[in-house]
Amino acid sequence: MTATLRLVGPLKEYANGRSELVVPSGLSVRQTLVGLGIPPEVVALVVVNEEQQNKDYILQEQDVVRVLAVIGGG
Amino acid sequence: MNGYGGSILRVDLNSGTISRQPTPAALARDFVGGRGFGLYFLTREVPVHADPLGSENKLIISSGPLSGMLIPGGGKCDWTTKSPLTGGYADASMGGHFTAEMKYAGVDSIILEGISPKPVYLFIDDRKVELRDATSLWGKGAIDVEVSLKKQYGEEYQIAAIGPGGENQVLYACINHDYGRQAGRGGVGAVMGSKLLKAIVVHGTQSIPVADLDAYRQAGMALYKACKDSDGLKDWTRYGTTIVVSWCDEVGALPTRNFSAGSFEGGKTLYGPVMREQIVVTDKGCFGCPCPCGKYSRMKRYGTQVEGPEYETIGMLGSNLGISDIQDVAQANLLCDDLGIDSISTGGCIAWAIECYEKGLLSKTDVDGLDLRFGNAEAVFAAIKLIATRQGKLGVLLSEGVKRAAQKVGNGSEKFAIQIKGMEQSAYATHNATAMLVSYMTCDVGAHHNRAWAITYDLQVGRDRVAPDKVARVIWLQNFRPMFDVLGACRLQWVELGIDRDLYMPALEAITGIRRSWEDLEKVGERIWNLARLYWQREIEDFGRDWDLPAPRFYEDPPTTGVTAGQITRFEDVQRLLDMYYEQRGWDANGAPTAETLERLNLTVVPN
Amino acid sequence: MRLYVDQTKCSGCHACQVACSLNLFGVTNPKMSALVIEPRFPAPGVYELKVCTQCGDCAAVCPTEAIKLNERGAYYVDFDECNLCEACVTECSEGVMFVRTELANAAWKCDLCGDCVPVCGTGVLWVAEKEQAPV
Question: Residue C132: its pLDDT value, please?
């Protein structure tokens, strides 16, 4: 049971430059990020199947999750 | 001169005399353009202790070498003046298309001097420059003025106008352009209004010469390619600055009810994706920008439209006022734009007034009978109108800015007047984010985030850490980011898309014929930074360390709700951060640049 | 081949016009470009865009045969042959034939260089085969 996680921008550095990862479903976005060594605080936006979700959202099978970093702000 | 419009336009509003001189090559070499030109003219030409709303102050508008070129984001001009709000240095960066049109009209800087005997607007059409009667425009909203002038002259003509806010010299009045871009902060609109200058119309048909055409085209195309290849482009374009609303709420940085907290229980309906779905009609951009952050919106409830709201306005006129409906925030945004007052300072003042009223420090009469509560949008709309027109007790009180208002009301209200140096703090709550706190404390126009957006760094390395690296980060950002304002370009292509900043240098060299590196520019940035500091010292008698201190709320008043509940920065840490900052800047314990620093930077004391 | 437009994505940035003027005249001057951007503000708050569809009507009407086909199969103005009669301007149904004598001594139009495409960040413009005309 898996979902797809897409890392945008500098978040790719946490995955050795990879922009797309297959991750287990059933965990929250936050847990998934922590498990990959990505501090949740640096993620600005979580978009699941093109809808914004917060980091407590539990990944469902075949979800496509895109996470964006807070880069520089305003 | 390659890359430049070529002329400095000087407008003496006292006599109506207009003169045009070639831009000195040495000025372009040493101060580059934009904010650099602004500081140059301000420090050299405005007399010491000039009344900001009097005849001796000047308003300087400058484009830069990247403005109007084949450069992503070549759409920014800088408005510099002595601030009526703070009494110190003010500059405001305005997007849209005005700066490009200035270049095509052959103009690098417009220096507005004196006071006109009657309302006028400045009309620039290539070599024809005139002051024209603005009697029929006086009193109109800034957007109405733009519509009128575009109808009269044509769509190619770019307009910058003040609304009643500027005419009434509200101390944080702004200037509007392109139906939704502003020269926002520091009261630049009040200075324009004090000169009885209602608008500036600019149109030019000249081309901009460059040193090396092929290299310029190549470098410009490389910059565009880097932007388009950025995998953050689509989402940034989709949401603009609203992309951080949810994040700020999540990390306790979203100003809530006069910065009493950093997260807002009503915040979710203000988030970017919700806003896009409910009101956004067009992604609207500035000159040359491949990632348009402007969100042009239609508010069905009011039958109106506005460019916005963007993050700052969502924070200051939304969560900071306890308002959770995005249509209400957008409507408040429109009122501020058309009436011509800075949405950030307006939000800061109204939030303070609401807290005063709730605490009984302002009576019902003092607030002109308004039901001034957090969350009451109608009262907010009414307050905005009162401020811009300087009507009612509330309008008059708040039109002076929150620092003066709190001095008048007293009774401890100064403690929750969220300002530094007299400028209302912009929309990042800094109860527990020490780098961002330093950024606000040391920003050279007052509590504004434009110079150093350091809050990500806080979250990355530990928000409450008090350590030299935090200060070093802020200083680097302060030396680097404002260089975009000097170049006449937007910084957000680099900031948001993460493109390689080195791509700008070949373009700049091909355009101007002068080879520079970012290190060279950061040195110019450091010089300019210190020059601004010297200006504050010169203009304000007791200027020093006290003027860098934050609002007491951030060291005395931990939030009771939200993500940062119970968190605060200790005052002794505020002092330690300031000490570290002064040391790294080469300033003394009172924040004055030392003789050694001035010598190193080849800066004398500001001449008068 | 011709230029296509999805104007719903236009942000009004003028980058296309800058790239165009560089191609046509070697200058940075959006007024010397071959695309028309029409802002509709404050309401409805959108940009309308007009580009050359390479229909050839201008070439057909030009009395001096100044409008020719280039190596891309696109119509362009040979400046030396243009006598500024403006017949093409009247004929063009998109309003994308340009005569502004304060800027240039000949008419100008899109020559399908394609430089506007890579500078448009929102994907408004693309070059593709002309669609078959309906029978």
Answer: 66
- What would the pLDDT profile of B401-446 be if each residue is shown by its tens digit? 999 999 999 999 999 999 999 999 999 999 999 999 999 999 999 9
Burial class (CB in 10 A: 0-12, 13-18, 19+), B461: middle
Quote the CA–CA distance of B175 and B192 in Å, as a whole number.
8
Total Cβ atoms within 10 A of residue B22: 12
Predicted local confidence at residue A51, as pLDDT: 85
Hey, CA dihedral for B536, B541, B542, B547, is it positive or negative? Answer: negative
For residue B94, what are the β-bridge partners?
B77
Q: How far is the alpha carbon of A50 from chain B, nearest alpha carbon, in Å?
A: 10
- Residues 4-43, chain C, touching B (beta carbon < 8 A): 9, 11-15, 18-19, 21-22, 25-32, 38-39, 41-43
Rounded CA gap, C102 and B516, in Å? 36
Looking only at the bridges linking them, the beta strands covering B58-62 and B77-82 are: antiparallel
Q: What is the 3-state secondary structure (H, E, C) of A1-70?
A: CEEEEEEEHHHHHHHCCCCEEEEECCCEHHHHHHHCCCCHHHEEEEEECCEEECCCCECCCCCEEEEEEC
- CA-to-CA separations, B58 to B8, B194, B301, in angstroms, rounded: 14, 11, 42
Omega before B255 within 30 of 0, i.e. cis: no
Phi-psi region of C128 (alpha: psi -120 to 50; beta: other; left: phi over 0): beta
Decide if pLDDT at B154 tops 60.
Answer: yes
Strands B58-62 and B107-113: antiparallel
Q: Mind listing the domains of chain B with CATH numbers? A: 7-203 (3.60.9.10), 231-420 (1.10.569.10), 434-498+517-600 (1.10.599.10)
Smallest CA–CA distance from A69 into chain B, residue? B232
How many Å apart are CA B566 and CA C46, to the nearest integer? 47
Q: Count of CB contacts below 8 A, B vs C? A: 108
User: In this complex, how many residue pairs, one in chain A and one in chain B, have their CB atoms less than 8 Å apart?
Assistant: 75
Q: What is the pTM of this model?
A: 0.97
Across the range B470-485, mean pLDDT stands at 94
Contact call for residues B88 and B82 (beta carbons, < 8 A): yes
Spell out which residues of chain B touch residue A41, defining contact as CB-CB under 8 Å.
251, 459-460
Half-sphere exposure of C70 (CA within 13 A, CB side): 14
Cα R_g (chain A), whole angstroms: 11
Q: CB neighbours of B445 closer than 8 A, spacing ≥ 6?
A: B83, B86, B88, B89, B90, B91, B185, B186, B421, B423
User: What pLDDT does residue B456 have?
Assistant: 87
Distances (CA, A) of B194 to B51, B165, B171: 11, 11, 11
Q: Tell whether the model's pLDDT for residue B608 goes beyond 50.
A: no
Six-digit token string for B391:
């009507």
Give, rounded to a whole angstrom, the gap between the first and last alpha carbons of chain B.
Answer: 29
C35 C-beta neighbours (distance < 10 Å), count: 21
User: From CA B330, how far away is CA B332, in angstroms rounded?
Assistant: 5
Q: What is the pLDDT of residues B176-231, one digit of tens each?
A: 999 999 999 999 999 999 999 999 999 999 999 999 999 999 999 999 999 999 98
Q: How far is CA B216 from the centre of its chain?
A: 30
* Domains present along chain C, CATH in parentheses: 2-124 (3.30.70.20)
Chain segment A44-57, per-residue pLDDT in tens: 889 999 888 889 99
Q: At what angle do helices B571-585 and B434-442 cross, to 10 degrees?
A: 60
First to last CA, chain A: 39
Beta bridge partners of B295: B283
Rounded to whole angstroms, the Cα distance separating B374 from B180 reads 26
* Mean pLDDT across chain B: 96
Residue of C nearest to B150 (CA): C41
Q: Alpha helix (H) ranges present in B171-244?
A: 188-194, 213-229, 233-239
Residue with tokens 């010491």: B48
